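<amino_acid_chain>
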Amino acid sequence: MKVLVIGGGASGLTAALTASEDPHSDVHLAERQARVARKLLATGNGRCNLTNRDMDLSHYHGTAPQFCLPALEAFGVEQTLAWFRSMGLLTVTEPGGRVYPASDSANSVADVLRLTLAGRQNVTLHAGCEITELRRTKGGFSVRLGDESCLFDRVIVCAGGAAGGKLGGTDLGYRLLTALGHSRTKLQPSLVQLRTEPTWVRSLKGVRCEVRAVLKTDGGRTERAGELQFTDYGVSGPVIFELSRAAAQGGLLLLDLLPDVPAGELTQLLQARQGGPPPLALIQARWRTGSAACAAGRRIICPSPLPCRSCWPGWRRCCAAAVSRSKRRAARSRRTGCRRSAGPSRPLLCPCSARWALTPRR
């Protein structure tokens, strides 16, 4: 039997490997780009989220979410992990049920798929070859494979979606299947970052935290909990990916940055800050920002709007250094004739004045 697999992504590689298990099959894998698995290498921020331990129909959305039920029943989570393990890939399960390769790198997943495929004698890879025509014929399919027309007994379309255009995503699969009489539902963005008013989030770029996020739209209210990451244009992270499908037409995003602190306790904490320094244990927080400052210690919220000896004994030295730096910058500007570009000024404050201080990590 002559089989053609269209698309060299995760599903295409899996389909080709599965079809080649029959020694009597002559499998051909056609990939439009110069190499296979390009999108796979970008999944999970380069880590490749293989699957999730909680694969339930309730997590699927759209006009016909039950469409995926036969696939989930035929090839569940345990079968998926066992299949990868048979190729030599070890995996780990993280909180939330997300499964990643033990190497924490998507390259490991792509490598085991490519190497296993290369070891199959009955598989032929056609890289850099775009399918431009797919027609049904008597007893099979006629396919325009590059500059020649070929006949196949079976065709498996794994062309992927139009998302990720920079990684090679196109609507080729939709067009090929539409020509065969298939239909599709309306396309809308999903599993994407959200853009917000960037002025205030830009200063938080790179900060990650566990939040409770609520998205309010004309269609209703959607709530999720999980990890969020601030970017220079908005917000990202797993919790935002889950909400993004409901944000295609915009909406209002509410973030609870202290989901584990009851509202009453948080109110008392804020009221205590107005009357004096709160207990240190309540306000210590470790932020995973990757900055040098956080590598050296913890950031502590200082209750005083002015420099205070209690939060940082070196505040006098800090203020003197800040003033000295400001004078040096002004003198340098006068010597070079340079002026700062128009825009909001950024006052130079010591950590205490900015309500931040550093204490050594314990």
